[in-house]
Amino acid sequence: MPSVRNLSAPMGAQSVAGRSVEADAAASLTIVVPTCNRYPYLLRLLKYYQACGAPMRMHILDSSRHAQPGQAIERLITTLAISYTRYDAGLEPIPMIHDGVKRVTTPYVVLWADDDFLVPKAVAAAAQFLDAHRDFRVAHGVGGIFTIRPSTHGPAELDIGPYLQCSVLDATASSRLVTYLTTRYSIFYSVYRTPELQQNLDQSVAHGFGHFWEELARSWLFAIQGKAKKLDGLYIMRQMSHDSQGDGWYPKRGSHAFSWVTMPSFPGHCDRFLECVARALAQQDGMSFSRAREFAEELFWGYLARVLAMDWTRRYEQPSQRLWARLRAAVRNVPMARNAWRAARSVLPGGNHELSLASLRRPSSPYHDSFAPIYQAITEEEPAMIADEAAAPLHRPDQTPCARE
């Protein structure tokens, strides 16, 4: 059984007279933070969250192998009145997330990866949107990704790009599922209604799904069950990184789609996944189960073909064939070229909505105020933590399948 140290008030939400709509939305939501062997990232997250005013309830789910998270984290947990649950060391993420989400009693919930940055006011806006639009199942906002490159001349240097987030507005479940698979974005970090996430996690646990199958099932089920909304504000900055601190949830190297589809467990998991999806489709669109199953199989095999093709490209395509990679490498090797490019972008029209470091740090950017505390949190990291980011990326929940399932 997990040990629970609840340092906050009971995990519910009540409206307070005279409070702003945004504050009410924040009070109606719980942030769930799963973590495993990554206390430096967790400390960074908590410092950032404190700088943002810590407006929501937070529940940390910890399956680390280390004995204690350390005094700095302990102090922040106490200061910010955060709930903290300790699980068996190395526990897989889905049983832990399932248990943690079951403990949430607020109407809305969001999952926050320990090495990423959510924008609390954007999360509150997503909860507020769901509260006013019952036909939507998830909401999120503008997303970005970043990698950290250590620098010997000052603060860490960042590479920043867009992280795809979309709206799915189709009227029928089958159309929404097709649109979702066409856009290929992740809802892992979206705001959910708590009972709906609990029910979908219940299904995944009942089917024995691990992390990848669960995320796949959750995405498909939510697309079937209702619409998704992308709001305008900066919502998330996701770190693409290799973590040398021993995260046991995802293999660091060698995971690929071919290994996944050739595992002995694949046929059983696939059959249970398709049954789960088909039943939801049949219920939502009023079609027969056999037709829904046929439709689900067609979509899944199209998805699988695309994943295998992308994996082949990553593994076997020669770097010399990648024109964009060659151009970026060439620019980096030309003295002052990067500075010249950034200076040019700063005066080009239409750049304020771009997800680049130069644009985000420009006061005229609509995302500037949301990005500023994120940038400060990143650049104030310990040097040793920054140095860990030079290696290859980890598998992340919305990337190529993990070969463990």
Overall description:
The chain has helices at about 20-25, 40-50, 70-80, 95-100, 120-130, 175-185, 195-205, 210-225, 255-260, 265-285, 290-315, 325-335, 335-345, 355-360, 370-380, 385, and strands at about 5, 30-35, 55-60, 85, 110, 115-120, 135-150, 155-165, 190-195, 225-240. With about 400 residues, it is of the alpha/beta class. Among the domains are: about 255-315, no CATH class; about 320-375, no CATH class. Strands 1, 2, 3, 4, 5, 6, 7, 8, 9 and 10 form a 10-stranded mixed sheet that branches. Helix 2 (about 40-50) links the parallel strand 2 and strand 3. The longest helix is centred in the C-terminal third of the chain and has 28 residues, at about 290-315. The protein is globular and about 60 Å long. The two termini are about 25 Å apart.
Q: What does the largest sheet look like?
A: 10 strands, mixed
Helical content (DSSP H or I, runs of 4+): 40-55%
Any idea what the radius of gyration is? 21 Å
Strand content: 15-25%
Overall mean confidence score, pLDDT: 82
Query: Order of SSEs, N→C?
Result: EHEHEHEHEEHEEHEHHEHHHHHHHH
Structural class: alpha/beta
What general outline do the C-alpha atoms trace?
globular
